[in-house]
Amino acid sequence: MGKIMIVGCGGVGSVAVHKCCQNSDAFSEVVIASRTLSKCDALKKKLEGTTKTKITTAQVDADDTAVLTELIRREKPDVLLNLALPYQDLLIMEACLAAGVHYIDTANYEPEDTAKFEYKWQWEYRERFEKAGLTALLGCGFDPGVTGVFSAYALKHYFDEINYIDILDCNAGDNGYPFATNFNPEINIREVSANGSYWEDGHWVETKPMEIKRTYDFPEIGKKDMYLLHHEEIESLAVNIPGIKRIRFFMTFSESYLTHLKCLEDVGMTSIEPVMYGGQEIIPLQFLKTLLPDPASLGPRTKGKTNIGCIFVGKKNGKEKKLYIYNTCDHQECYKEVGSQAVAYTTGVPAMIGAMLVMNGTWRRPGVFNVEEFDPDPFMDALNKWGLPWKISENPKLVD
């Protein structure tokens, strides 16, 4: 049993707290810390009396490393789970180093003033975490996260080498809004409006936003249009999976979403460049975020399923082999369980699992690591136990 501090109390944070409280044998105490204390207190009130886990709350600005460090030192958690904004990753890593606490996150660092994300900034912390005897586990959501564990599991049990990976993220949920994002609108729109890219033969191939479109027949969902995006796990899997020749990432979008996004782009509302309005400087995308529905509020009105998984092509005993490992998740079932839609659920559950494995020593080594660098079996077992059961198709249809 141990104590976890969770920084961030949005949709994913709420799911992670719920799952930690369900797993009270592992988590004896949860500290919920956020800029908005009232959100933490409301979640505490909702869960108290339903769990053996002790819940405490704290107000903290994750941009203030000194204040966060002092909070960590005062609370003395065994691990810290970072579910704040990706802009704050490095600041929170600094606080964990200063306070001597293991670190877990779900999304890699990106500078606030540049729509670009990559692991190099966090990988540069390897030596410091190693010298401190601390573990930093990066990208432990679903994608990135479970997709990396799927890859490690496929390599361990089904392949001698993996040559091709296609990561498919399908959200067939309908929330009833003409335009809404299923996670932080600012991060979501920055991601999907950027150039796409995939990794092939040792280098990156860049594409225009939404340039490459494919249609795929997803199990339990049906045919959906999906588009090639850049995604962070491509970078780590290219390094950590031997024999790889190509990795691509595809995500589904509705026509309504794409039409609204294009209009917003055309009028400059997705820009992260400052503009003057009413005598003060604002960021158009940050202003747009205030107008869009809060993703944490989408749970009761979202219906349908998600399907996220990986298609692998490689070799076993000298022969070509294909495999598809995936999870399907029902939005309404997630809401019944934890009051959340499935996109937050599929991120919050793996975050809890990664924190548990670091805390109990199963996934603990000094340094900075991506999930595929650890033994996948304990994580895969935990997915089945804690709400994200996976399936395997031995002869999947490939993406052309």
Detailed description of the structure:
There is one protein chain. The protein is an alpha/beta fold and 400 residues long. It has a domain at 146-338: Dihydrodipicolinate Reductase, domain 2 (2-Layer Sandwich), CATH 3.30.360. 35% of the residues lie in helices and 28% in strands. The chain has helices at 11-22, 37-47, 65-75, 89-99, 120-123, 126-132, 146-157, 185-193, 232-240, 255-266, 284-291, 331-338, 342-359, 377-385; strands at residues 2-7, 27-34, 54-59, 79-82, 102-105, 135-138, 161-171, 196-200, 203-207, 213-218, 222-228, 246-252, 275-277, 280-282, 305-316, 319-330, 367-370, 391-393. Strand 15 and strand 16 (319-330) form a beta hairpin.
Give the SSE map.
Elements lengths: L1 E6 L3 H12 L4 E8 L2 H11 L6 E6 L5 H11 L3 E4 L6 H11 L2 E4 L14 H4 L2 H7 L2 E4 L7 H12 L3 E11 L13 H9 L2 E5 L2 E5 L5 E6 L3 E7 L3 H9 L5 E7 L2 H12 L8 E3 L2 E3 L1 H8 L13 E12 L2 E12 H8 L3 H18 L7 E4 L6 H9 L5 E3 L7
Parallel strand pairs: 1-2, 1-4, 2-3, 4-5, 5-6, 6-17, 7-12
Antiparallel strand pairs: 7-15, 8-9, 8-12, 10-11, 11-12, 13-14, 15-16, 16-18
Helix pairs in contact: 1-13, 3-4, 13-14
Using the CA coordinates, give the radius of gyration: 20 Å
The total of beta strands comes to 18
Helix content: 25-40%
User: Which CATH-level-2 architecture of the domain at 146-338?
Assistant: 2-Layer Sandwich
Detail the poorly predicted runs: none
Helix/strand/pairing category: alpha/beta
Provide the residue-averaged pLDDT.
94
Question: What's the end-to-end separation, in Å?
Answer: 47 Å
Approximately what portion of the residues adopt beta-strand conformation? Answer: 25-35%
CATH class of the domain at 146-338: Alpha Beta
Count of helical regions: 14
Shape: globular
What name goes with the CATH superfamily of the domain at 146-338?
Answer: Dihydrodipicolinate Reductase, domain 2
Major beta sheet, specifics?
9 strands, mixed
CATH topology of the domain at 146-338: Dihydrodipicolinate Reductase, domain 2
